[in-house]
Amino acid sequence: DVHLVQSGGGLVHPGGSLRLSCAASGFSFSSYEMNWVRQTPGKGLEWISYVGSSGSPVHYADSVKGRFTISRDNSKKSLFLHMNSLRVEDTAVYYCVEDWFHYDSDGPKRSDYWGQGTLVTVSS
Amino acid sequence: QAVVTQEPSVTVSPGGTVTLTCNSSTGAVTSGDFPNWIQQKSGQAPKTLIYSTANRHPWTPARFSGSLLGGKAALTLSSAQPEDEADYYCLLYFGGPHPWVFGGGTKLTVL
Predict the structure, then answer these.
(1) Which of A18, A42, A94, A83 is nearest to B45 (CA)?
(2) Contact, B82 vs B111, CB < 8 A?
(3) A50 near A59, Cβ under 8 Å?
(4) Tens digit of pLDDT per residue, chain B (111 long)?
């Protein structure tokens, strides 16, 4: 079974930094692309960052570009999100999500597996 | 970047059937967009029910089905149960520098 266990998060002041971690198990982590998705309180889901299976390429939503950095350590089956220059509007639950791209008898398929989420609160 | 739209809220009676839809600003949704349907119950993490248009995960009740309907992705719930009350998000895959785009979600009420 796929398991994505997240850690990090918490309360931070505006302008501060935080690192989120996501430990993967139950699948060949180094073979799959990974993403971070966030959900602000009472709102919908927002994709914020992507990393290829080997660590590149990386992509970011405009809302976090230049402030957040996604990375992974395939030897440790871990995904990270380094968040700098945090703003009040970055307050959200952050989810680590695996992009399960695979082939079956009907051709290519794509699904996603989600971590449990971690709350980041940016407040003075 | 594409905009993905869903009905904001839908109500279904217990035992009834309802279809939620997912529309893309770029044109017709196709299987190549790998539409996924994600359920999020109150206070819980999201969980994908339907992937790549019409495929169920082992945990997905058979009363949920996915399809393409009139240029949109569709999630049909047959014989709705009270426990199906949740937010449902559509996710489309576009690749490139903004690979994933979520719909705004549909709040499904079973009443």
Answers:
(1) A94
(2) no
(3) yes
(4) 899 999 999 999 999 999 999 999 999 999 999 999 999 999 999 999 999 999 999 999 999 999 999 999 999 999 999 999 999 999 999 988 989 999 999 999 999
How many A/B residue pairs have CB atoms within 8 Å?
63
> CB distance A45–B48 less than 8 Å?
no
Find which of B52, B57, B60, B102 to mutate to test the A interface (most A CBs within 10 Å of its CB).
Answer: B52
pLDDT beneath 70, residues of chain A: none
d(CA A112, CA A52): 15
DSSP of B4-44: EEE-SEEEE-TT--EEEEEEETTB---GGG--EEEEE-TTS
Distance CA B14, CA B38 (A): 21
Check: CB of residue A35 under 8 Å from CB of residue A50.
Answer: yes
Question: For residue A116, which residues of chain B lie inside 8 Å, CB to CB?
Answer: 45
Omega into A57 within 30° of 0, i.e. cis? yes
CB atoms within 10 A of CB B16: 12
Q: Can you tell me whether residue A90 is helix, strand or coil?
A: helix
